[in-house]
């Protein structure tokens, strides 16, 4: 059975990853990794994850480690509701990253926030094997080539890649993340200057980039989601080859083939196209 996620994470994109465009480069970079659902969908790529939250970083360190399998096999299959997950972690001598994975399985959807869940809830007990053993056994052998770092997003090298940028949203729900102290004007400028294909996620309606609506679905009736969940996204292409590849299919392959090559190779035409993308990416004041 295929799994969309490797562990439960607050605000994860497991249900939405297929709504975003496919990578345009062999390398994917996620500066705010979280559960990294987008990269998991394209796991065969060269993936570089980063997360400032120490817990998230240590979770990925464990999943990418060479000795993770021996600990995964020690996880009990059916723990009792209400049991302290730290007792399980102590019993199997779990590394700190696995300890946090077990905590994330106690009550789904809270890892990444300030909340600490130590006792296994009813839903956590029902989905325990699925959210721990099954997912880890599925993903561990597939992700050995991935890399993870733990630093501020601004310190990441500006490589040519597909950048999937999913920061804490600039709203009340985003404030629940443990690492949520973000200057969104600075983040916007940083995003616009990445090399390659840039995908930025936010709540639809955010103003720090010109986000467009991607999906609207029923939300949980709560303080943070009144009636609907509405996701926004921003795209930008800072790679001439990617733009060329997108332009080519617009021309017929028969009679217009020579004209197509002439247009694509014309530097004046390229500059005009690049200017269009720059203008479309201007931050609305």
Characterization of the model:
It is a single chain. With 285 residues, this protein is α/β, with parallel strands linked by helices. Among the domains are: 151 residues, Rossmann fold; 41 residues, no CATH class. It is built from eleven helices and seven strands. A seven-stranded mixed β-sheet has the order 3-2-1-4-5-7-6, sandwiched between helices. Strand 4, helix 8 and strand 5 form a beta-alpha-beta unit. Helix 2 packs across helix 5. The chain is globular and about 65 Å long. The termini are far apart. About 7% of the residues have low confidence.
SSE blueprint and pairings:
Layout lengths: L26 E4 L6 H5 L4 E5 L3 H10 L4 H5 L12 H7 L4 H11 L15 H5 L1 H12 L7 E3 L11 E5 L18 H9 L3 E8 L8 E7 L9 E11 L1 H8 L9 H9 L1 H14 L5
Parallel strand pairs: 1-2, 1-4, 2-3, 4-5
Antiparallel strand pairs: 5-7, 6-7
Helix pairs in contact: 2-5
Helix content: 25-40%
Structural class comes to alpha/beta
Unreliable runs, pLDDT <50, ≥5 residues? 220-226, 248-260
Shape: globular
Question: What's the main sheet like?
Answer: 7 strands, mixed
- Quaternary organization: single chain
Q: Which CATH class of the domain at 17-74 and 145-237 is shown?
A: Alpha Beta
CATH architecture of the domain at 17-74 and 145-237: 3-Layer(aba) Sandwich
- Total DSSP helices: 11
CATH superfamily of the domain at 17-74 and 145-237: Vaccinia Virus protein VP39
CATH topology of the domain at 17-74 and 145-237: Rossmann fold
Number-wise, the strands total 7
Q: Largest sheet, order of strands side by side?
A: 3-2-1-4-5-7-6
Give the terminus-to-terminus CA distance: 47 Å
Percent of sequence in beta strands: 15-25%
User: What radius of gyration results from the CA coordinates?
Assistant: 21 Å
Mean pLDDT: 81
Order of helices and strands: EHEHHHHHHEEHEEEHHH
